[in-house]
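Hey, resending since the last one bounced:
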Amino acid sequence: MSSYWKAVVMCFSTFTVFFLQNLSSDTTDSDELKNFKNGTIREKNQTHWDRKATYPWIGDPKCQHFVIELAERDSLAKWPLTSFPGSGVTWTRQLIEGVTGIYTGSVYDGDPSPVLSPGHENDNTDDPLCGCTIIDKDHEATITTFGLASYFELLHRHGNAGIVNQQYDRRGVLLLRNPMDVVFAYQNWVHGGKTGKAPPEAFKGINWEDAVEYVAYAWADHAIRWIEQIENGTVLFYEKLKGETAEIELERVLNVLDFHPIDANRMRCTLAHRNRTDHMRINKPRMYLEPHHRMKLIKAIHRVQQSLRKKKWPRLPIYLFDMHSPEGNI
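The structure tokens again:
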């Protein structure tokens, strides 16, 4: 072979080796090849990430196509939806999930999403570190069935008093409900669980006195502490969510969560189905409060109203409150 052709063969061999080395090297990939590889990795990760989609309004032809699912991992900030037990937080989570299409979560183990398709396995619980839920239920130190002593134990010895700063970077949405309704709901929760009912004797005697005392103090104490500590957030009222201004109330809180745009059809479907009874106690008798019980709870309302006024937040809609008196007044 002539020296000319030997040189050609040598150049071709050198080029081939160089090309193959570059093709397999991560440090010399072309932009197109890098994008392809990265895209392949993302696709595999997304396939692995189970967003647990469910359809809450099956049977309604105008709404049944709407899905609720987890957001992508680490895509959302950690927001607490804090409330006193019996304030309607599970029902409120249904509304938020309906409008956003994103699951809410809970800081409590075994506390699944409140909205699931009929027959859907009830297994969607929140991973507090996933960054994939729109907001998370957190009762803070009020999640106790042992009254004020236990409340103070959780609050001070276990450090829950500063939880809004420690875990949520001073973000928060505070859900408030008339404490005169809450005290009955709380007693039902203590004795009957999430949807059960307390026996009639639970609303009499020393145990009932202790329950009223606890709710009157802790409902207000919890609310005021969060109002004072929240720097980025708002208050949400159960009674307004039940009434004619529910859409305005939901829009206001979603604006604080920086969720937009709001789908008008989703909002319509959410409000059309807001009276679903998945997690509600039904056939509850209306009960009255003794005047001295009512006065303790009125004082609690006054304390929280003052705190809201000082914060320049919306005020408690007292005009919507049931006073649980035979005459309907204080």
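The beta strands are 80-82, 105-106, 136-138, 171-176, 232-237.

Sorry for the duplicate.
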